[in-house]
Amino acid sequence: MAFHWLESDTVIADGVPSELTEPLDPHRLCMRGTYSAPVRCVALDARIGEYSRCTIHSRRPSVCREVEASWEFGRASPQCDRSRIAHGLPVLTAADWHWRDAPANDDEQPDDTPSNPDRPTRPPLVA
Fold first, then answer.
1. CA 95 to chain CA centroid, nearest Å
2. Cα distance between residue 108 and residue 127, in whole Å
3. pLDDT, tens digit, 9 for 90 and up, residues 79-101
4. What's the confidence (pLDDT) of residue 126?
5. Rounded distance, CA 117 to CA 20, Å?
6. pTM of the shown model
7. Which of 6, 29, 82, 93 has the highest Cβ tally under 10 A?
């Protein structure tokens, strides 16, 4: 979970909260908890198998932004799938995202965060 120190809120206003990071080397930071055993990011609010969310989702580092949840954007994510399998969870499917289509969820922020991804423009592809 290493990322360049320029992503920190000490450099840019909406950067990764510096109080949740620790230096890894002169050029990189990491999220506290990601270089210890057991690995658990300090920004993760989760009960594995029940729920999970990043408490700094809109300010998360680039390494976190690079990992998509499977089918969130209409395609599988091998890294997400491997992680879920390693934790004894089923892989996500396109059906797991149908909640976004519910009429009661037609507000501007379907996941209640200020950084919602765009909806896929095409239906999911079969893997």
1. 19
2. 30
3. 989 988 887 888 999 888 876 67
4. 46
5. 24
6. 0.67
7. 29
| Contact in structure between 39 and 31 (CB atoms under 8 Å) | no
Q: Are 34 and 41 in contact (CB under 8 A)?
A: yes
Quote the CA–CA distance of 51 and 47 in Å, as a whole number.
Answer: 5
Q: What is the 3-state secondary structure (H, E, C) of the chain?
A: CEEEHHHECCCCCCCECHHHEEEEECCEEEECCCCCCCCCCCCEEEECCCEEEECCHHHCCHHHHCCCCCCCCCCCCHHHHHHHHHCCCCCCCHHHHHHHHCHHHCCCCCCCCCCCCCCCCCCCCCC
Q: Give burial (CB, 10 Å; 0-12/13-18/19+) of 41.
A: buried
22 close to 8: Cβ distance less than 8 angstroms? no
Q: Which of 29, 27, 24 is nearest to 9 (CA)?
A: 29
